[in-house]
Specification:
The protein contains 6 helices and 7 strands, in the order E-H-H-H-E-E-E-H-E-H-E-H-E. With 167 residues, the chain is of the alpha+beta class. The protein has one domain: Gcn5-related N-acetyltransferase (GNAT) (Aminopeptidase, 3-Layer(aba) Sandwich). It starts with a strand and ends with a strand. Bound molecules: coenzyme A.
Amino acid sequence: MIRLAQVDDVEVLSDIERAADAVFRNEGMETVADGETMPIPELLRYQREGRAWVDTDEVDRPLAYLLLDVIDGSAHIEQVSVHPSHAGRGKGRQLIEVAAEWAKQQGYAVLTLTTFADVPWNAPYYARLGFEIIPSDHITPGLQEIRQHEASAGLDAWPRVVMSRPL
Ligand SMILES: CC(C)(COP(=O)(O)OP(=O)(O)OC[C@H]1O[C@@H](n2cnc3c(N)ncnc32)[C@H](O)[C@@H]1OP(=O)(O)O)[C@@H](O)C(=O)NCCC(=O)NCCS
């Protein structure tokens, strides 16, 4: 079931992020696999602001989550992670659709994200969900800042793109 995250969910989200990122090791992307998970206070901020959704198992334990930001006046997917034990069952897609619907109801016109261009379950997947790559000269300042932050974290060792989808 998809629902808004509660305070008690937050620690599990770090475990999901670590497990989901570990899959990048198979692609030779150790920097991603071994990266720091989002600090708990930061996760709590999304939870408090009502922009963190979880998908849960039969005992209401999160197995996937999505964090939404607002960047340059658009809704922005900061993170979507599905525990590998439940990947490939449409959970990522459903979370993205819930966030898109919420953003649309809030009056946002566009949904954005940054991702790896060549990882099969990243940009090619988002393209199938209706996202298009934003040309580099059309990337707005807040999104450029995110890209700079990602570059300084070593993520630009592999091509990354900014994508958007109209709502
Ligand atoms: C990306 C992610 C959120 C997708 O969640 P999910 O629940 O597995 O997504 P879905 O079941 O909706 O779809 C997975 C898609 O990826 C594709 N996919 C997954 N692994 C793949 C692989 N190794 N090779 C090719 N395609 C792959 C599937 O074919 C599917 O595409 P389709 O639905 O268009 O056929 C999840 O895989 C994940 O958490 N990955 C690790 C963290 C990550 O990359 N987060 C996003 C950073 S921008």
